[in-house]
């Protein structure tokens, strides 16, 4: 057994991670959105606590998000991703870039009740998982989402995800000012400052992305999304 070090994934929350000989599961595509409010003295981000019944990161505070569904890429949108984000999302994947952004919007609605979109006349029949938004005549809006990071769960974890992280200005992206609503997936939803968020019980990747958001909010430059993954040589961290 070998202890892994020097990685955003190298430790469980209370102890060491060990590598076993069991087969490594294939990562499932996922998307997460980091909503940022700037209407107070300090920027705040939306976070919630995962249910203790989850077998993946139970009781941890995270940003809204989840697994990409097959139908997500087929949803009609009010507008599309910026060209630069579309291009970056194409790196090492065959999936449509818009599918990742649409997943983040759908999961945010399912987990918090918040709407990232615009009013529009929508078709009566929606792709699976989108009927509630279609019934409200809400078209998802992609242009305010910024692709800010990607992370693949290491091969020694029992569940693995290839997660894309988006950042959005809440005042521009959300359709209204409704408060987030706790649900089965996330509870204790709250807008917290970056310092207060750092004090929560966070998965290591969430903490890494929180630091990335901090850097982006304090700088006008775009260094490109970080890409955290595991290669044959070990942990790799570079930018797309």
Query: CATH superfamily name?
Result: Nucleoside Triphosphate Pyrophosphohydrolase
Task: Please report the first level of CATH classification, the CATH class.
Answer: Alpha Beta
Q: Mean pLDDT, as a whole number? A: 89
How big is the Rg? Answer: 18 Å
- Overall, the morphology is globular
Computed structural class? alpha+beta
CATH topology: Nucleoside Triphosphate Pyrophosphohydrolase
Distance between the termini: 32 Å
Q: Residue ranges: pLDDT <50 for 5 or more in a row?
A: 1-7, 9-19
- The beta-strand count equals 11
The profile of the biggest β sheet is: 9 strands, mixed
Residue share in helices?
Answer: 10-25%
At CATH's second level, what is the architecture? Alpha-Beta Complex
Element-level helix/strand string = EEEEHHEHEEEHEHHEE
Provide the domain count.
1
Number of helices: 6
Strand content: 25-35%
- Quaternary state reads single chain
Spell out the key features of this protein:
alpha+beta; Nucleoside Triphosphate Pyrophosphohydrolase; 9-stranded mixed β-sheet; 11 strands; 27% strand; globular; disordered N terminus
Plain-language structure description:
The structure is a single chain. With 240 residues, the protein is an alpha+beta fold. Strand 1 and strand 2 form a beta hairpin. It starts with 27 loop residues before the first strand and ends with a strand. It is globular and about 50 Å long. The protein has six helices and eleven strands. The chain has one domain: Nucleoside Triphosphate Pyrophosphohydrolase (Alpha-Beta Complex). Strands 1, 2, 3, 4, 7, 8, 9, 10 and 11 form a nine-stranded mixed sheet that branches. The N terminus is likely disordered.
